[in-house]
């Protein structure tokens, strides 16, 4: 492939990524009017987001098989087609169940596109350019969700919530035509029998864990049905892993975890998402619930951090290409730890803009680590291992993010309620401080991995 062909494919992936990433956060703004139009309760309406996450959790492990079984171009445009079909169904949906079908189609298409994008970029570009390219890819992942809620608010107020899906469908249609013109079959394929048993196990395992944790976060830890779903998911996951290890041609290649560098990348990505998703849930609660400010102020407090992450991501890729992972990993973990300790120390008298500053530091850390960890973990893999590695990493870090959302928001709520008698009006702040202290411990583990387990050289274990 020529450099021009590679860049055209990269641009196409960026367009697709922006459209899919925007919808993720835009829907949170559109959810209240959608619930009003369909006459939904909050519990039912939340399925538009939790059901999407569940479908993504089921789809992610399947993508490794799809990428290695079907030609790149055909699979990519099919995934875009699924996403567009889902968008149009949501626009035209006469009822909530039909709209849920649209959301599941979107999740299916997005699951394939997310995994394919990373595998394609890591395959077609040489190793000394991968960090930079993945950094720019991370920019699209980080920037689109930043502007989406504001844009969605304007669209909902001016034209109705359907306009969000229309615009997203229009962008995806451009990407579809563009992909038909510029895409090539860039990934190796091989004939492989579809393992129905493994797929069913992966769906129950990853879907059960994702759904169970997500529901515990939204419905509370006293709901026993969610604990049963989570337990079934964990048990089936153990059985699934054992099956994959003993299969000659596994549905999802779990043996790559034996690769030392990939294992560190996997652990680092999961810890990063654990803290990242926990803080993303708690920061709006801090501004609105604890400090009593409006949703608009909450958006302004978190906006500088999101913009900082979008700006830092491409530069982090360049740093990785030049210096390797060690320095970037340590710097990112230190920034994350400092920001969490800072939030642990704030009080009711602390300005919310101090908290906004700590959030900027945290987001800079995320920008330094998110895409470089993926690039570093699969560097040296062939396309087969890269497909399985990215599918596994994306699935497990998504679960880690769900755990972070549930655990840290749960800590904040439980500690706040338990300390109401002792702290009075400051009980919620005490709960928040405790949650960020717990995040600090998790980040300290991330820093220990960076300092003691990551080596200076890029390829010390291959």
Automatic annotation (TrEMBL):
Q: How does it sit in the membrane?
A: Multi-pass membrane protein
Residues in the signal sequence: none
- What are the entry keywords? Cell membrane, Membrane, Transmembrane, Transmembrane helix, Transport
Q: For this UniProt entry, which segments traverse the membrane?
A: 7-27, 47-68, 75-98, 104-124, 136-157, 163-187, 199-218, 224-241, 262-287, 293-316, 328-346, 352-378, 399-423, 435-454
Q: Name one GO molecular function term.
A: transmembrane transporter activity
Q: What GO cellular component is one of the record's annotations?
A: plasma membrane
Q: Does the keyword Acetylation apply?
A: no
* Subcellular location(s) per record: Cell membrane
Q: Which residues form the Major facilitator superfamily (MFS) profile domain?
A: 5-458
Q: What is this protein called?
A: MFS transporter
Name the gene.
LinCd
């Amino acid at each position: 492939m020529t450099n021009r062909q590679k860049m055209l494919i990269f641009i196409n992936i960026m367009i697709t990524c922006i459209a899919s990433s925007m919808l993720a956060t835009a829907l949170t703004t559109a959810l209240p009017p959608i619930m009003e139009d369909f006459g939904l309760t909050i519990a039912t309406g939340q399925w538009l987001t939790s059901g999407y996450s569940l479908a993504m959790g089921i789809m992610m492990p399947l993508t490794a098989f799809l990428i290695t079984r079907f030609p790149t171009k055909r699979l990519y445009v099919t995934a875009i087609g699924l996403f567009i079909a889902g968008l149009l169904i949501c626009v035209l949906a006469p009822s909530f169940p039909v709209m849920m079908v649209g959301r599941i189609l979107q999740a299916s298409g997005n699951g394939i596109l997310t995994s394919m994008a990373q595998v394609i970029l890591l395959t077609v570009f040489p190793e000394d350019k991968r960090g930079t390219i993945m950094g720019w890819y991370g920019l699209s992942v980080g920037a689109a969700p930043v502007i989406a809620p504001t844009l969605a608010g304007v669209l909902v107020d001016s034209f109705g919530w359907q306009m969000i899906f229309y615009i997203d469908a229009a962008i995806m249609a451009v990407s579809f035509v563009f992909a038909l013109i510029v895409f090539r079959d860039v990934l190796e394929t091989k004939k492989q029998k579809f393992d129905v048993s493994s797929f069913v196990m992966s769906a129950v395992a990853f879907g059960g864990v994702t759904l169970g944790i997500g529901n515990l976060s939204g419905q509370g830890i006293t709901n026993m049905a969610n604990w049963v779903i989570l337990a079934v998911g964990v048990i089936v996951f153990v059985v699934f892993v054992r099956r994959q290890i003993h299969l000659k041609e596994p549905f999802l290649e779990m043996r790559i975890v034996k690769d030392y560098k990939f294992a560190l990348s996997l652990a680092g990505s999961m810890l990063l998402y654990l803290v990242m998703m926990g803080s993303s849930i708690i920061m709006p609660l801090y501004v609105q619930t604890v400090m009593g400010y409006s949703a608009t102020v909450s958006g302004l407090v978190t906006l500088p951090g999101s913009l900082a992450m979008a700006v830092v991501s491409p530069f982090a890729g360049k740093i990785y290409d030049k210096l390797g992972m060690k320095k970037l990993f340590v710097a990112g973990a230190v920034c994350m730890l400092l920001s969490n300790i800072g939030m642990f120390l704030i009080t009711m008298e602390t300005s919310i803009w101090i908290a906004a500053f700590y959030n900027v530091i945290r987001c800079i850390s995320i920008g330094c680590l998110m895409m470089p960890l993926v690039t570093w973990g699969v560097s040296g893999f062939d396309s087969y291992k890269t497909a399985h590695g990215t599918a596994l990493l994306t699935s497990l870090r998504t679960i880690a993010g769900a755990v972070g959302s549930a655990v840290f928001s749960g800590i904040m709520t439980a500690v706040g309620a338990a300390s109401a008698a002792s702290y009075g009006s400051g009980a919620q702040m005490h709960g928040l401080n405790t949650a960020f202290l717990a995040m600090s411990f998790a980040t300290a583990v991330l820093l220990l991995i960076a300092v003691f387990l990551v080596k200076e050289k890029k390829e010390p274990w291959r």
